[in-house]
Structures are given as C-alpha cells and as structure tokens.
Design brief:
CBS-domain; 6 strands; 3 domains; single chain; mainly alpha
C-alpha cells in the first residue's frame, strides 16, 4: 500500500506499544510517508523508536533509515543489529547508502560494508573513493544507457529487463567505449515508431558534469536550468553515473549548513550535530575563537590609546556599547545580504563598485537617521549637546565604514576563490567594533578639545 501523506500520531503509536498491539502498530506506521516516520522516531523515547523501526517492512525501513538524522540515526546504528542495517543499505540507492556510511566512524562503516551484498558494497566503495563534496559522491551508477544503433523496441525491451535505475526521465546514449554521445527524453522514446533507431530520436547535445565537479556548482546548475537529472562523466567523456535533483537539493542543504556555521565563526562539522564528538566540535571552534580573541584586543588597544581622553570625559564610555553595537549590526546586515548576492551570482568583482555605492548610500541614510537619534540621546542622558554631536557624527561614519568593509571583504575573497563566509561574520564585526571606537574617540578629541 502506498504511503499516505498524513502526519503520524505519536500518542496513538505509544498507546499501541503500551497495549502490546504490535501487529496493529506495524500496519499503522508503515502507511505513513518515510520522512514522517523518521520524524516520529525522533519524537518517541529511544526504546519505543527502536521497537517501531523493527516492525517496518524492509523496503519502508530502508527509506526511513535514509531520512533519519541526529540522535535517532545514532541510536539505530548503535542498537540495531549490523546484519539488519546492512540489508537495509542494500535496499537503498548506492549514493544514499554511501551518504549514510560516510557520516559513520570508519570502523563502523567498514563493518557494514563487509556485511552488504558484494556487488552493492563494491558500488558504494567506488562512490566513497571519490573526493568529498564532488559529483562522484552524489551520483548513482544505476543509470539506463542505450546504444544508438538500437531500435525503439530494443530499447524498451532493455528497460523492461533492467532490475533498477535511479531515473528514466532521461535515457543516455553511449558508444562502444561508453562515451556519452546523446540523450533521449522518455517522452521521445514513447512517442517514436517501434523500428526507429535511437540515433534518430536522440538529442546529440547533452549537458554533463565531470566526476570531480564541486557539489555547490552542481546544485547551482540544477537551480538555474531546472534539470531533473545530470549525467556524470570521467575525463575521457565516459558515462559514470547520474545525479538526480533530490541529491542536488541535499547537497545544497549541506552547503547552506556549512555557510551558516562559518558565518558564526566556526569550521563546519564533518558529521551531523549529534553524531559529532565533543572534541571535534571543540577543534572546529577553537581556531576561529582564538583568532577572534586576539582580534578583539584591538578594542582594548583603542581604549588604552585614548585613556587620557576617557579620564577627562568619563561620560564618553557610556556610549561605547551603542557605537560598537550599531556598527557591528550594520556590518552583519550587509555581509548577510552581500554573501547571498554572491551565491546567486549577482555580486562579483565586476559589479563591486555598484554594490558598494548601493550599500554606502543605504548606510548613509541609515547613519543620518541613527545619528539624529544619537544627538537626542546625548542631550536626554545629560551628557550635553557636544557629546550628542560627537555621537551623532560618529554613527553615520561607523555605519558607512561597516557597510564598506562588509561589501569589499567577501566580494574580494570570493574573487580569489576564498569562501566569503570564512572571512565574514564575527571577524568583520570585530574589525568594525575597533574601527568604530577609534573614530568615536578621535571625533571626541577634536570636538571636545581633549
């Protein structure tokens, strides 16, 4: 029976377990969509989740295993028998099985591979041999490859006898050396005459990606051209496999996750959050945290350089959180916008000047508004109109400098093939904070005659 798109009822499932109605439990749960079953397992206590998983048919359980993440995947790996897990991995498409295994410790991954069917394990090992985050890791080798001299009838007979393929939206045509020479949309095949040759109905121009292509680039190709599948070839143009849109979207999600982690000032984790050991999390965060710690000393150096001025007008110190916070927030807003525009191909080195003008104009308007408020605050807080003028003049300059830094740094980094998220976020905020303080104290020194 096909899975129904209805939300699982965790209370009903728990009730069936408590009343030992296990046969009914299996019938109820297997009617949910695998993705919803995976969510259900996350919501259940560990023992109940393992029990529910054990009542699923093999074909359903394999899809659920592929959908799981976080703690429940770790629980399944630890508590479900290795032979059962290996059988479920045999049921999965080889690219999904490889993706599952690559997140596990090497000893666990090797143990499961040894228990899988030899042919399945061979294909999965082949995928895992390719470099991480490349087309080779995303593709499946289960692809329908036709010969141009075949008739339509011969091609249809071939497809009927195939045990399993990832997609038949597009059928790829290869020569005797397995080189990709064309593509046949399934509609063309179904509408053709039985005795027509494949070479008569194939499209000779077919877009493919090399096996070494970066997964982020592949995800962008799917998004730009609305492809359902893309063939993967080696350096000689031989067809190796195919990447489908669902795998491309998984890769895109992974890239977005990495970018978000980098924006927070941390190296991305190599495993799902709950599967990553604490020491790995510490190692990923320590480097940038130490760098930011050292960079933050710039603010201390600014305070030290202007300690005499602070001694003469202590009221200046009360406005430093306002100055630093406004500059840091303006920089964060700009860098988030610019990095997204870089990802979409809207901002590059050739358009940097236009982007900078746009951000500086925006910063100037915001700065004038915030500066006006700063003047009022200086007077309302009893600091006097001169301090208010210092704050009012500092805020526009700080916001403009923040938007400038946040526009230039990621764009230039991207031009030189450096991930812009690595050099952005907390690092830009730290630089903007220090620069803002220096501007603030210099203006105070000039206007107040300190």
């Amino acid at each position: 029976m096909a899975p129904e798109h209805k939300l699982p009822d965790s209370e009903l499932v728990s009730e069936l377990i408590q009343n030992n109605r296990l046969n009914e439990l299996g019938n109820v749960v297997e009617n949910y969509h695998p993705a919803d079953i995976a969510d259900l397992l996350e919501d259940l206590p560990s023992k109940e989740a393992i029990l529910v998983f054990g009542r699923l048919p093999v074909d359903v359980a394999s899809e659920v295993l592929d959908e799981t993440g976080g703690l429940i995947r770790q629980e399944l790996v630890e508590k479900v028998d290795d032979e059962i897990l290996a059988d479920l991995l045999d049921e999965l498409p080889m690219d999904d099985a490889a993706e599952f295994l690559e997140d596990l410790p090497d000893d666990v991954s090797d143990r499961l591979l040894d228990l899988m069917e030899p042919e399945e394990a061979k294909d999965v090992r082949q995928i895992l041999s390719y470099e991480d985050e490349t087309a080779g890791r995303l593709m499946t080798r289960d692809v329908a490859a036709l010969r141009r001299q075949w008739t339509v009838n011969q091609a249809l007979d071939f497809l009927r006898n195939l045990p399993e393929v990832e997609t038949v939206h597009y059928l790829y045509v290869v020569d005797q050396l397995s080189k990709l020479i064309g593509v046949v949309p399934i509609r063309n095949l179904l509408m053709a005459q039985p005795n027509q040759k494949i070479q008569e109905i194939m499209l000779p121009s077919v877009y493919s990606v090399p096996v070494t292509a970066d997964q982020e680039e592949i995800a962008e190709i799917f998004a730009r051209y609305d492809y359902v599948a893309i063939p993967v070839v080696d350096h000689q143009g031989r067809l190796l496999g195919v990447i489908t849109v669902d795998d491309a979207m998984d890769a895109l999600e992974e890239e977005v996750t990495e970018d978000i982690q980098r924006l927070g000032g941390s190296e991305p984790l190599d495993q799902p959050y709950f599967a990553a050991p604490i020491l790995q999390v510490v190692r990923k965060r320590m480097g940038w945290l130490m760098l930011l710690f050292v960079a933050a000393n710039l603010s201390g150096a600014v305070y030290s350089a202007f300690q005499d001025e602070l001694g003469k007008a202590l009221i200046l110190a009360s406005f430093t959180p306002l100055i630093m916070g406004t500059g840091g927030n303006a920089g964060s807003q700009t860098v988030a916008t610019i990095i997204r525009a870089i990802t979409l191909g809207e901002v590059r080195l050739s358009t940097l000047l236009s982007a900078w003008r746009k951000e500086v104009t925006t910063g100037l308007i915001l700065g004038i508004l915030m500066g006006s408020i700063g003047v009022v605050l200086g007077i309302v807080w009893g600091a006097g109109w001169q301090i208010g003028v210092v704050v009012g003049l500092t805020l526009p300059i700080v916001i403009i400098s923040a938007t400038t830094i946040a526009t230039l740094v990621p764009t230039i980094a991207n031009h030189y093939q450096i991930d812009p998220t690595v050099v952005s976020g907390p690092m830009i905020t730290t630089i903007v904070d220090s620069a803002g303080l220096a501007i603030y104290f210099l203006l105070a020194k000039v206007i107040l005659g300190l």
